[in-house]
User: Which sequence fits this backbone?
């Protein structure tokens, strides 16, 4: 089964979470039509080699497809080496033809918040990728957070993404959760996401804000006290949903910070070892309790990790 991204968007509430998806997004049985897969993980010796492998994925996608590429960037630590590499490449002319074909999208964002807030993924992208990169790519479409109409903005974002024919590469990270669970993008445990949900507006918790702020500070983002105060006032998170991940032609995950986030080790082991049920209700519960498992339902996924993800 492939997940469709056509037709009118349907709004669906799951508790306080709002999901926008395909017309059959309420049909839980569709999740059992997806084949489960063992996760194809590869251990690389350094963060820089992970970044180079991610760049190789972009080059391979460009070689295999004529026309434009649609790429969803990963925020945070998992793709910083890639972004630095892309920034360096953009200073030359070696990949101009490829970059000129790229439509770049973001996958999650805190809202409402100024777009130039130092805790915005967009500012982090600008810092690492550099001005030359954004001049060379065909388009850059962030989730706009400087709005009070959160659902309207997310709808406009999805309309733009779907108009380009779907995602060629979705770069994913991996976030640890309680009880050895995990999240992808900001699809959190208990958020009620289904296989047909393309994106959601999720209420934000104080613990998520603390994690976000500490992560950005540790990553070297340039921030001010005013930025932090505004970030702490954010009420929601935009996130792409399971349907966006599952409909992507290629998913490339990276996990490079287990040394500073050691809980990722047990969550990642659980991701590898979980036996995903064939029963519709039970599988839906598994995905809701541990959204990191959604990647196991994708037939063309690659997970790049450092050695300390599997060993202390």
Assistant:
């Amino acid at each position: 089964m492939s997940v469709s991204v056509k037709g009118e968007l349907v709004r669906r509430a799951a508790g306080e979470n709002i999901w926008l998806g395909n017309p059959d997004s309420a049909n839980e049985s569709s999740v059992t039509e997806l084949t489960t897969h063992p996760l194809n993980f590869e251990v690389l010796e350094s963060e820089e080699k992970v970044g180079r492998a991610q760049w190789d994925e972009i080059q391979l996608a460009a070689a295999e497809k004529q026309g434009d590429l649609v790429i969803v960037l990963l925020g945070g630590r998992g793709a910083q080496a890639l972004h630095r590499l892309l920034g360096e490449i953009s200073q030359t002319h070696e990949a101009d033809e490829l970059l000129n074909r790229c439509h770049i999208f973001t996958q999650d964002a805190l809202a409402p918040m100024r777009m130039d807030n130092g805790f915005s993924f967009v500012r982090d992208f600008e810092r690492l990728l550099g001005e030359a990169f954004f001049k060379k790519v065909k388009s850059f479409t962030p989730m706009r957070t400087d709005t009070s109409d959160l659902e309207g903005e997310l709808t406009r974002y999805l309309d733009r993404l779907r108009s380009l024919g779907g995602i060629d590469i979705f770069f994913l990270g991996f976030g640890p959760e309680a009880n050895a669970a995990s999240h992808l993008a900001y699809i959190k445990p208990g958020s009620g996401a289904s296989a047909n949900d393309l994106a959601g507006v999720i209420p934000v918790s104080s613990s998520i804000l603390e994690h976000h702020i500490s992560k950005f500070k540790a990553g070297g983002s340039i921030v001010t006290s005013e930025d932090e105060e505004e970030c702490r006032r954010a009420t929601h998170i935009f996130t792409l949903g399971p349907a966006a991940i599952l409909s992507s032609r290629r998913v490339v995950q990276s996990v490079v910070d287990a040394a500073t986030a050691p809980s990722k080790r047990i969550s990642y082991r659980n991701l590898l070892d979980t036996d995903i049920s064939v029963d519709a209700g039970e599988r839906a519960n598994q995905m809701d309790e541990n959204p990191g498992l959604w990647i196991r339902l994708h037939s063309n996924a690659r997970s790049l990790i450092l050695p300390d993800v599997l060993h202390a």
About this structure: The mean pLDDT is 92. The first helix runs from residue 47 to 64. The chain has eleven helices and 14 strands. Residues 11 and 20 are 5 Å apart (CA to CA).
